[in-house]
Amino acid sequence: MSKPVTFPCPHCKKPSLWHDNPSRPFCSERCKLIDLGAWANEDYKIASPTAPELTEHQSEDDLND
Ligand SMILES: [Zn+2]
């Protein structure tokens, strides 16, 4: 009666096995790579020298209106 321990994959939210899972906390190596890739892309955008400044000014204008 021992149920396998499962957890929601941080990327696809599907219940995934904890034990014998080399890609945990992700359900699979694929989700792991996709999620890490998404973070890397966001970091790259944030680190971009021009985009964040423009976005901030636009947001402030919207709030002040
Ligand atoms: Zn997944």
Automatic annotation (TrEMBL):
Keyword Cytoplasm: no
Classification via Gene3D superfamilies: Erythroid Transcription Factor GATA-1, subunit A (3.30.50.10)
UniProtKB keywords: Metal-binding, Zinc
Transmembrane segments: none
UniProt superkingdom: Bacteria
Binding site residues for Zn(2+): 9, 12, 27, 31
One MF annotation (Gene Ontology) recorded for this entry: zinc ion binding
Cofactor note: Binds 1 zinc ion.
Role of this protein: Inhibits all the catalytic activities of DNA gyrase by preventing its interaction with DNA. Acts by binding directly to the C-terminal domain of GyrB, which probably disrupts DNA binding by the gyrase.
Protein family per UniProt: Belongs to the DNA gyrase inhibitor YacG family.
UniProt protein name: DNA gyrase inhibitor YacG
